[in-house]
Write a structure and sequence with these properties.
This protein is an alpha/beta fold. It folds into two domains: about 80 residues, no CATH class; about 170 residues, Aldolase class I (TIM Barrel, Alpha-Beta Barrel), CATH 3.20.20. Helix content is about 45%, strand content about 15%. The strands form three sheets. It has a six-stranded parallel β-sheet. A two-stranded parallel sheet has the order 1-4. It has a two-stranded antiparallel sheet with strand order 2-3.
């Protein structure tokens, strides 16, 4: 929990709009055979002990809810099973999230959509037919959503980014599109921002040297601050697409074109 609160502080300091978690009911998501299989960690020697050590309980999520309210930042979570979505409802979060792995779990998508909360839908490991089914579920429930272009490798190779899919998704499904990035560094996320994304998600960490399988695809505090600052500048720089002579240009145009006007008079 101390690491969790530090990560929330990092997000607040960087200027993020929200922090997102993942919630799993281990017995719903994993087989008993898998949970009993060996895995050494600071919590024990099995997969179950490792995953139980990482999974937050009700009291811990209440602490997260309270801390985020204190820090004035939104929080929400992606549920990986039906029980977890029921669990999250008690916190009345503003948003929902569909993880890429859950995009094809239609029963879960219907449960999420019935809540009517704006939902971010990641599209990794899925084709257009999978995405169409998800879109149909949310539109049928009249639940607002946006798709997020995602490549589910950790870290993602630069050549796999295929950022033009952002435009493809926007055109095909006539909806807002964000980007959920798992790459190392900042450049690809900046490039996604120039394509008019409406949301940007990145994994964060206090240090990539810490324990965890996603560290290589995560941003440290300095990187996150740089990313948010850069994206905010890109948002301003993109403008509205209308070509005009801005006020600041007018005196410069008068000065630099003075000889043209002079020649015209002569």
């Amino acid at each position: 929990m101390s690491i969790c609160k530090e990560l929330i502080d990092v997000a607040v300091d960087a200027g993020c709009d929200a922090v997102k978690f993942q919630k799993r009911d281990l017995d719903q998501v994993y087989t008993q055979e898998f949970l009993d299989s060996p895995r050494d960690s600071q919590w024990g020697t099995t997969q179950r002990e490792q995953k139980e050590g990482l999974e937050f309980n009700t009291d811990q999520y209440k602490a997260i809810d309270s801390y985020c309210k204190e820090k004035k930042i939104e929080w929400f979570a992606s549920a990986w099973d039906l029980n977890s979505q029921d669990f999250l409802r008690q916190f009345k979060c503003k948003y929902n999230k569909v993880a890429s792995a859950m995009l094809v779990y239609e029963v879960l998508l219907k449960k999420i959509a019935e809540e009517g909360k704006h939902t971010f839908i990641s599209t990794g490991m899925s084709d257009l037919r999978d995405i169409q089914k998800a879109v149909d579920i949310f539109r049928s429930a009249k639940c607002s959503f946006e798709l997020m272009h995602t490549v589910s490798t950790y870290p993602m190779k630069d050549e796999d980014a295929n950022l033009k899919v952002i435009n493809t998704l926007r055109d095909k499904f006539d909806c807002d599109v964000g980007y959920s990035g798992h790459e190392s560094g900042l450049v690809i996320s900046y490039a996604a921002a120039t394509l008019g994304i409406t949301s940007l998600e990145r994994h964060i960490t206090l240090s990539r040297a810490m324990y965890g399988s996603d560290q290589a695809a995560s941003l440290e505090p300095t990187g996150l601050r740089q990313l948010v600052g850069g994206v905010r500048k890109i948002e301003k720089a993109l403008g509205d697409g209308q070509k005009t002579i801005i006020e600041a240009e007018k005196p410069i145009a008068k000065k630099l074109r003075e000889h043209i006007n002079k020649n015209l008079k002569n």
